[in-house]
Amino acid sequence: MEILPAIDLKDGVAVRLSKGLMESAKVYSSEPWKLAREFERLGSKWLHLVDLNGAFAGEPKNLEVIKKIRENSSLQLELGGGIRDEDTIKRYVDIGIERIILGSIALKNPKFVEQMSKKYNIAVGIDAKDGFVAVEGWANTSDIRASDLARKFANVGVSAIICTDVSKDGMLGGVNVTFTLEIARASSLPTIASGGVKDMDDIRALKKTGEIAGVIVGKAYYEGTIDLKEGFLYIQ
Question: Which residues span the domain enclosing 48?
C-alpha cells in the first residue's frame, strides 16, 4: 500500500479545505515545491496534486506552480482538478505528470475516460457525499451511486480509482474504510482512499484489509497528527 501526500493548490499556494468548501481554505505553504521536496525526503514515492481552482473552472489554473513542483521533485506526480479534454491531458503529460486524474468528466462522459485510458495513465477520481457522486469541485451531488460509477471502469484500462468521502475530507475524523472497500470491490481496480485520514490508526486499518492500494494524506500531515516518516516505514 502506498501513502500519497497531498498538495491542494488554490491561487498558487498550498491549502487544505474542510468538506471541499473553498471558503474554508487554510494556507499551509506559499512555496508548494518545497513541500514536495520534504515529502520526498521523508520517503514518499508519489505526490497527489489537486488544482482546486481548476476543479471549479474546468481548466488549468495553477499550471506555473505545478511546473515548479515538477522541476523541484523526482516524485511520481498524479494530478486532478478540472481536466476535461485531451488537450489538457497532453499539456500535463508534456510537463512530466505521471498520472492524470479524471473526476467530473468520468460521470458525464465515461466513454472519454475509456478512450484516454488507452493513450495515457488515467486514474478516475470518485468523490461522494452519502454514497452518491459529487462533481464540479463537490459543489453538486448527482443521483448516481459511487459504487455503480466505479463498476463502469472495471475493464476499460483505467489504472486506479481514487475515492473520497467528501463529508470526511479535511475533518481529521478518520478515513471511511467501508466506503473505500465498496469502491475497490465494485471496480476490482487498485483503489486509493482519500478523506478524513487522521493518524496511524487509519493507515493500519486500511493496510489490514489487504484490498486497498493506497491512501492520500493531507491535513493530518499539515496539522501534525500523523508522522509520515513512521507511515512510510510501516507500509514497507
Answer: 2-235
